[in-house]
Amino acid sequence: MTKPFIGVILLLHAMVCCYAKTISLTTPTTVGKVYITNPDVYNYTPGDTFFIGHSISGLNLYNVKGSPDKYVVVTAAEGVTINGGVVIASAKFVKFQNLNINAGRLTMGFKAQYCSDITLDNIQVTDATIGISIKNDPKDNDPSTYYPVTINNLVINNCSVKNCNNEGFYLGHTFSAPLYNQIPSPIMGLTVSNVSVENTGWDGLQITNAQNCKVNGVTTVNTGTANQTGQKSCVALQDAVTGSFENINCKDATGGLTILGKGEFVIKNVTLDHVATSAGACAFFVDNRSDRGLNLPPRKLMAENISILNGNKSARLPVYVLNSSGFGALAQQGIVKNLKYNAEEWAAPGKVVDYVPNVYITDTTKQVEQAPPVDSSSSTLQPSPVSPVDSVIAQAPPEPLPPVDSTSSTVSVLPTAPIGSASPGQSSNPTLPTEPVLTLNPSKPLEPTKPVSTSPGTSVPAAKKDTGFIKLYSNPNNGRFRVAFTLPQKSKIKMLIVSMSGNVVYQNQWNKIDYLDQMISLPSTGMYILKVMSDSGFEDMKKVIVVK
């Protein structure tokens, strides 16, 4: 055998070894779900394709690993349907392409857990509880499910979700308080383009705990049909979210567009058509929320070309921008350019209320005419005259006082904010209470209160070490509010809430925690004293005002 001939044989062998191969996950005899925990039995390598040749009743695929330059591809033949959903876990560098999923209304359409570097391209999901869910749910004693471990480079292109009981897209862990006292893994680098959502009971597109997002091209139709409090947004961009969001078109939603993000938050070319159809909702709602301990910068809203069409007289406001201090630094002043809506289509006052306040600029580069600020002594927001310009902007005064020293009798009063559950799988709550909102006059401090008696012969003393670490969101409130704090060390914590008549209305305790984010409900109007005590000597006390 000549040397040239041997060289040709070796070259052909090298070429064959370098080419990716296609591996069939199904055969004509496959029945039911394909469940693979050890894909190594297929002798796959990075760059190979897993192929689904005919319809199956579900796909569970674990431990698939590609490489940064050679993703493992999972795809199906044309006309194939996966009935029952797709689950991928503990995977990396995997691309799902051209899948048609009909999950059934009791099953998630596509679910990825403990994965990184995942791409979804041309995935269609119909009839599911949640259409597409990608996140990590922290597990006790498993460091791989916590920060600083991250979900890197998540890409979703040309995907659609239709007919879901709950959310359409559920991207990023949403539970407000860290589980097991740890920070859930954030998404670092999320790219979403050309996605659509139709007919969801809860939020259409929900993104939480995701940084460096690039979202371009989102369409939602008929979302929030269950009218569930805190789950009505057509698009919800929530805690610890940063990035740019462009070309968003939403039509028919019981809620609106919700923004709770951080940093320089860029949002452009948004059309909200017939959204916020439920009582008390807002078409465009912005507020501060937790950065989840990731030390993200305060939000700076940079919005451009926001069009709100076909308002609803039963809704609250077309635009409501809060600047609550319950979760850290206040937002920086940003710019809202070319905001358009018809004030006559909304209930009085039919205007924008902005507590940052941001700068509003019309398409003629002139400052938008501003309506008088909200009368803080009134129990309702006052109606404003119809402005000749497209938008009527109420630049509300800055939130009046810094965080309150708990030894003082003066209470810093914020506008009533959205209240709701923060349980797993639920988003933050942009919907305002339907009752009239009472805003107290911050220039008129409350009368000093006497020590509160908890039982005959006892009282709640002033805090020994008042560090001012308790944050309330919001205060005053309608009976539901959030208590959050962070301590420098893990401690045993006791929380007590006492009415002015001396009755203990709430008490709870936690062992060895240094962070808490707790939703509390109080049944009656009035003033209460909330006190937190730790076995490490940290104590704080706040007044809580409930207005129903």
TrEMBL record:
UniProt keyword Acetylation, yes or no: no
InterPro entries the record matches: PbH1 (IPR006626), Pectin_lyas_fold (IPR012334), Pectin_lyase_fold/virulence (IPR011050), Secre_tail (IPR026444)
Keyword entries, A-Z: Signal
Start-end of Low complexity biased regions: 373-389, 404-416
Ranges of compositional bias, category Polar residues: 423-432
SUPFAM superfamilies assigned: Pectin lyase-like (SSF51126)
Signal peptide: 1-20
Region annotation (Disordered) ranges: 367-461
Protein name: T9SS type A sorting domain-containing protein
